[in-house]
Amino acid sequence: MKLPVFLDRDGVINENRSDYVKVPSEWVPIPGAIAAMAMLYRHGHPLVIVTNQSGIGRGYYTPGAVDHIHQVMLSAFRAAGIPSVPVMYCPHHPSQKCSCRKPETGMIDQARMEQNLPDGGWMIGDAHSDMELGRRSGLKTILVLSGRGSSQLEIIRAENLPMPDHITDSLVSAVDIILTP
Q1: Strand runs (DSSP E) across the chain, as ranges?
Q2: CATH number of the domain bearing residue 129
Q3: Catalytic: 8?
Q4: CA–CA separation, 98 and 116 (whole Å)
Q5: Using CA of residue 171, residue 106, residue 134, residue 132, what is the dihedral sign?
Q6: Is the pLDDT assigned to residue 27 strictly greater than 90?
Q7: Fewer CB in 10 Å around end: N or C, the chain?
Q8: Distance between terminal CA atoms of the chain?
Q9: Ramachandran angles phi, psi of 40, nearest 5°
Q10: Is 176 one of the annotated active-site residues of the chain?
Q11: pTM score
């Protein structure tokens, strides 16, 4: 088994919305993102989505709405030749201090256990919390500048936070980094 690739959802796979993706019609894939994931899948990398969905805890939408959005997303993955991708999400409000909200490692720990995934791998995200999750989980990190990536990179630099292992423009170029020996 090749190393797993953990991916944030909003801003990496689909367009990020400042008002949250609340219904399936607001889930809009970033051009090339699903094809890039299919490339990883064809090369044998297990894929796992890890996403904070605090809109549930904030009362903006329900777990059922998120599940419906994910069914639309998974259908798009299947159409691209990716039969199954586990989706882990944190529904909690940031004030709840849970163990699953990124950058805490709960979602990755759970995915490793449930999917019998090896140690190591990659974390692709558009936020500092994604990079910190990857660092805490022993993953190589790739910050994509799509979504919130550019503004998050400014924060990382301004606050002298640990830099990602790689910085690139999108999931498409992130996949090139992973697949290039």
Answers
A1: 5-7, 47-52, 87-90, 122-125, 140-144, 166-168
A2: 3.40.50.1000
A3: yes
A4: 23
A5: positive
A6: yes
A7: C
A8: 16
A9: -60, -45
A10: no
A11: 0.97
Residue 45 DSSP code:
-
Amino acid at 49: I
Three-state secondary structure call for residue 41: helix
- DSSP summary character for residue 27: -
Which domain, by its residues, includes 19? 5-179
Euclidean distance between CA atoms 68 and 23, whole angstroms: 8
Tokens 């994910």 belong to residue: 70
Q: Is the peptide bond before 103 cis (omega within 30 degrees of 0)?
A: yes
Model pLDDT for residues 133-180, shown as the tens digit of each residue: 999 999 999 999 999 999 999 999 999 999 999 999 999 999 999 999
CA dihedral 69, 75, 76, 82 (to 10 degrees): 130
Sign of torsion over alpha carbons 90, 91, 92, 98: negative
Q: pLDDT tens, 116-143?
A: 999 999 999 999 999 999 999 999 999 9
CA dihedral defined by 80, 48, 85, 9, rounded to 10 degrees?
-60
Q: Are 11 and 130 in contact (CB under 8 A)?
A: no
**Are 174 and 168 within 8 A, CB to CB?**
yes
Tell me the C-alpha distance between 154 and 137, whole Å. 23
- Count the domains in the chain: 1
